[in-house]
Amino acid sequence: MGLIDEIGERLDALVRDLESSLQGARSDDDVRARAARIVGKKGELTALEKRIREVPPEDRRELGRRINEAKARADRIVEARLAALRAEARRRELEGPALDVTLPGRPRRIGSLHPVRQCEEELLDALQALGFEVADGPEIETTAFNFWKLGFAPDHPATCMQDSFYLRDDVLLRTHTSPIQVREMLSHPPPVRIAAPGTVYRRDDDVTHSPMFHQIEGLLVDEDVTFADMKGILTLFVRRVFGPDTPVRLRPSYFPFTEPSGEIDIGCLICSGRKVGCRVCKGTGWLEVGGCGMVHPVVFENVGYDPERFSGFAFGMGVDRIAMLRFGIGDIRLLYENDVRFLRQF
Ligand code: PHE
Q: Would you say residue 24 lies in a domain?
């Protein structure tokens, strides 16, 4: 038998070895490892290939052909085994137990509305029920809208650098939601009836004052609007929010953009007017929830409304303060610490 036939038989034997070895392979990696022992870089078939140098030149072409053919068969055997393993895995998956849909899922924690947002929504709901439409404005305001068009005097303490957060000489974080009144009236002819919620900023920081807090502004302008309309609407509004028997009182006050102006007080929610020893109302029986007043003619002039023809009222409420009263929260800073142990209670 010539050398070429001897090598040829070795090739055939190696392919047969590969075939039987692969029958025992249980995974893709196993298949590849077993194949490498024969057709890999250091495999037996590869070693045999090097013996091509030993055969006479005229036989090399034939040997080369046989080697290539053996390699191709080896490749087909490997591919076939891999395909068989895949098919087997699929069949086992189908025959195996079905997906267990009775396993309990992983619960997702669902958050809840922040107490300030809850109050804001309640207040807005009550105002919408009274026909007010929700409006808003930017938190970064010009001094023109935040102060001057509202009739603030240039030396009003709130306009001072030490009392407000200025970004530039004439731009600041709004100190109240009242500039939304100006924006609304400049962009709409009367009548207007808006409720405008918003975040506002002042240089304050203690148990009852946070540098960032929330207000809801109300504005109603039409012909023949009177102080009695204001008191009636505010009373309805307050009773919708705090209960039908809540006492309401207006106390004289001052704002540059309203005349006359008042503070809105409600009967103390904590002691219900019993007063003695109540720390929340400090024994007065009343709680202040906001400011209000009849829109000053100067404001109407600044926005191009005829003060002879139109009249109206405005009010502003502190949402954080109402949330604190409602939920019995003693320190406003708790609202902004983002401690879920605190927030989860509401
Ligand atoms: N803007 C006033 C404040 O922040 C509240 C207010 C609004 C008073 C509307 C009267 C009318 O103190």
A: yes
